[in-house]
Amino acid sequence: MVFGAGNANADVLFVAEAPGAKEDQAGAPLVGATAKLLDELLESIGLRRADVFVSTVLKCHPPGNRDPSPAEIARCTPYLHEQVALVEPRVVCTLGAFPTRLLRGDGAPLGAIHGRPELVTVGRRVVYLLPLFHPAAALYTRPLLDALREDVARLPQLLDRPAPVQPTAEVADDDVGPEAPQGGLF
């Protein structure tokens, strides 16, 4: 299982779709060339990987590298929501169409909304959501790489905004975290 890695008090949390085979082996999200590109993008705005938290919607590599099933998403989303509640980021950057659609709650094409921050509620926390192209896709497509660089360059301005106002409703003790799935993750 790959739960995530990075600064547990980060202002920025990146969310990708699911760990790949290499991430599954490493026990960390975004490794290899994808990690190198993310590191370069962060450095270009004065951040390091150690300054942010990186997670995935699914916590395990889907067999055959297929798209996540609705049942897998339903089982893993509470863990992502709890990560957001624990880390308390101000900004959540979605990497790719899948996490963007999930956290926005709609099917808007990523090409039309990338780089456009908006306020959304993820679990119990209100955050600025910044949809981004996935670094893995940008490695092979120059126009996506250029767009990703431009969109990441907007992150410092977003971090300069006031923190989103959080809901004040009390959370019952039994609603604090996700329940463990029955019969394994998948």
Structure description:
This protein is α/β, with parallel strands linked by helices and 186 residues long. The chain has one domain (5-159): Uracil-DNA glycosylase-like domain (Uracil-DNA Glycosylase, subunit E). It is built from 8 helices and 6 strands, in the order ββααβαβααββααα. It has helices at residues 21-26, 32-44, 70-87, 97-104, 110-113, 135-138, 142-152, 155-160; strands spanning 5-6, 12-16, 53-56, 91-95, 118-122, 125-132. It has a 6-stranded mixed sheet. The longest helix has 18 residues, at 70-87. 35% of the residues are buried. The model is unreliable at 172-186 (pLDDT under 50).
Distance linking N and C termini:
12 Å
User: What percentage of the residues does DSSP assign to strands (E)?
Assistant: 15-25%
Please summarize the sheet with the most strands: 6 strands, mixed
Mean pLDDT: 90
The shape is globular
CATH topology, anyone? Uracil-DNA Glycosylase, subunit E
The tally of domains stands at 1
- Indicate the CATH class: Alpha Beta
The residue fraction in helices comes out at 25-40%
How are the SSEs ordered, and which strands pair?
Blueprint: E1 5-6, E2 12-16, H1 21-26, H2 32-44, E3 53-56, H3 70-87, E4 91-95, H4 97-104, H5 110-113, E5 118-122, E6 125-132, H6 135-138, H7 142-152, H8 155-160
Parallel strand pairs: 2-3, 2-4, 4-6
Antiparallel strand pairs: 1-3, 5-6
